[in-house]
UniProtKB/TrEMBL annotation:
Entry similarity comment: Belongs to the isocitrate and isopropylmalate dehydrogenases family. LeuB type 1 subfamily.
One BP term from GO: L-leucine biosynthetic process
Annotated residues for binding of NAD(+): 72-85, 286-298
Subunit structure: Homodimer.
Binding site for substrate: 92, 102, 130, 227
Gene encoding the protein: leuB
Annotated Pfam families: Iso_dh
Protein's UniProt name: 3-isopropylmalate dehydrogenase
Annotated source species: Hirschia baltica (strain ATCC 49814 / DSM 5838 / IFAM 1418)
Length: 357
């Protein structure tokens, strides 16, 4: 049966990097049926909203969606609920893609590209499982109130229900089962929270512990405070295997982990819901307004996000392996964009990966 693939290039470097991912997919999966939609600021400029019902329906009917990135200074003054980033939160929520897999893998050729010494990152292979559709990015009430005395109060609500915690924790445990032997001091799932100061963190730790006892008692589980994990990631990152994190901590820890791999331009992600529902794939990075339109962006994160789509949504592990190996080979052969210390353009990096397929 024909598989359908929706491209949402978005803003800033989004269109530049997704174009390269599309070129790679055209080679390894030429039978995919592609469609494309406006999303984020690009959609706001035309339709006045960052996500139209039409694009949302298109996404619902697709087998996989590849998003570039959204947002940028151009839309800084737009009403908050119409900002590009709000369109992304809505898309994630509507698709109910609650489990966000963010692998931080250091390709051997990039062991010297990290800001950490080679010995700390060579062989690094971490999987971050981030809760994506709840937590403080979605909690109500939220707002900015005028207190009437020249003071204003801004507030968000960090909240989780037990089922929201359990379903993403289950994904983390299942993933850890397939990743035995990785990590050191933290060999299985390491759940992060701030249970020392947050009620939602207390519930997070209790629910993860309960689920572990009920369903995964033979798998290793550690708990660590999220700030201590941030430290661990730059102290001895290879000690860690699977990190389970809420929406906010997972967002921050994955940007931090990206630097261990050489660049944020290397980190892909998969956002998954229940089996049989479309997955949403996107680089971990944003729209990088500082380099947008200059052909400087590293397309690897977008290309590897396409790789994850083939593997996790489209059941095409062979095609995914081809991409994975080609990225590794292109890097081995010296292909580098500026973020990795090289001088290749976005398109040249795409060319190098396609040549290595
Ligand atoms: N999923 C999404 O759509 C995301 C959107 N954003 C949005 O993107 C905008 C910019 O956010 P920032 O905090 O600047 O984060 P960013 O990830 O866009 O950029 C941070 C730094 O990394 C560099 N960078 C990012 N991707 C790169 C790539 N592929 N190749 C080379 N260098 C790369 C940028 O040039 C910049 O110096 C904001 O509007 C933000 O809300 C941020 C993160 C994720
Ligand atoms: C809109 C933001 C929450 C996007 C982001 O930083 C991310 O998901 O990594
Ligand atoms: Mg982020």
């Amino acid at each position: 049966m024909t598989q359908t693939f929706l491209l949402l290039p978005g803003d800033g470097i989004g269109p530049e990097v997704t174009e390269q991912a599309r070129r790679v997919l055209d080679v390894v999966a030429p039978d995919l049926k592609f469609s494309e939609g406006l999303f984020g600021g690009a959609s706001y400029d035309v339709h006045g909203v960052p996500l139209t019902d039409e694009v949302l329906n298109q996404a619902r009917q697709s087998d996989a969606i590849l998003m570039g990135a959204v947002g940028g200074p151009k839309w800084a003054k737009v009403a908050r609920n119409l900002r590009p980033e709000m369109g992304l939160l809505k898309l994630r929520k509507e698709l109910d893609v609650y489990a966000n897999l963010r692998p931080a893998f250091c390709f051997p050729a990039l062991a010297d590209a990290s800001s950490l010494k080679r010995e700390f990152v060579e062989g690094l292979d971490i999987m971050i499982v981030r809760e994506l559709t709840s937590g403080v990015y979605f909690g109500e009430p939220r707002g900015i109130d005028d207190l009437g005395n020249g003071e204003r109060k801004g507030y968000d609500n960090a909240c989780y229900t037990s089922s929201e915690i359990r379903r993403v924790a289950r994904v983390a445990f299942e993933i850890a089962k397939g990743r035995k032997g990785k990590g050191g001091a933290y060999p299985g799932v390491t759940s992060t929270d701030k249970s020392n100061v947050m009620e939602s963190g207390v519930l997070w730790r209790e629910e993860v512990t309960k689920l572990h006892q009920e369903e995964f008692a033979n798998e290793p589980l550690d708990h660590i405070l999220a700030d201590a994990m941030a430290m661990q990631l730059v102290k001895k990152p290879k000690d860690v295997n699977v990190i389970l994190a809420d929406n906010l901590f997972g967002d921050i820890l994955s940007d931090e982990a990206s630097q261990l791999t050489g660049s944020i331009g290397m980190l892909p992600s998969a956002a998954l819901g229940e089996p049989g529902t479309p997955g949403l794939y996107e680089p971990v990075h944003g729209s990088a307004p500082d380099i947008a339109g200059k052909g400087l962006a590293n397309p690897c994160a977008a290309i590897l996000s396409a790789e994850m789509a083939l593997r996790w949504s489209l059941d095409r592990a062979d095609a995914a392996d081809r991409i994975w190996n080609a990225v590794g080979k292109a890097l081995e052969d010296g292909a580098r964009t500026a973020d990795l210390g090289g001088s290749m353009s976005t398109a040249q990096m795409g060319d190098a990966i396609i040549a290595a397929l």
